[in-house]
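Reminder to self: keep the SMILES exactly as supplied, no canonicalising. Ligand is fe (ii) ion.
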Amino acid sequence: MKLSRSEKQYFTDCSLELLKSEIVQRMGTFIQHANVSCLEHSISVAYYSYWLCRKLNLNVDCRSIIRGALLHDFFLYDWHVTKNPKGLHGFKHPLTALENAEEHFSLNDCEKEIIVRHMWPLTLTPPKCREALIVSLSDKFCSIIEILRIYPALISR
Ligand SMILES: [Fe+2]
Ligand SMILES: [Fe+2]
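Structure tokens returned for the bound complex:
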């Protein structure tokens, strides 16, 4: 699951605006699964989504995939202790993440779709673009390896 040097550089270039932002770094203070922070989880989802696109040589918008994935869980609270005012966390946090992301960053339609559809099929409306489907699949993969704590063994960057 390695990226080439130029792919790593592309990943860094696409991530930079978001990762240097203080508000995105705040995701590092919230646990997502097991001992993995929300920021680490989001970086993993972005990494694996992009890796999958390169591996399968998919003709998709990789920049939006990386940026959308980095913001897909940008809800900014500890979901283990804080309730989402809109309803159950599992169903509503994509909307909260989208609201936060739109407040702080300029997003394209693909990035918005990635964030708001990433919990499909739990949230019933399916992703309209391949980019959102890829991030949704990577999110499930990363969540499982984090919950099972096999995360460090698989990461090879
Ligand atoms: Fe999520
Ligand atoms: Fe996630």
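Points to follow up:
Residues 38-55 form the longest helix (18 residues).
Residues 120 and 126 are 6 Å apart (CA to CA).
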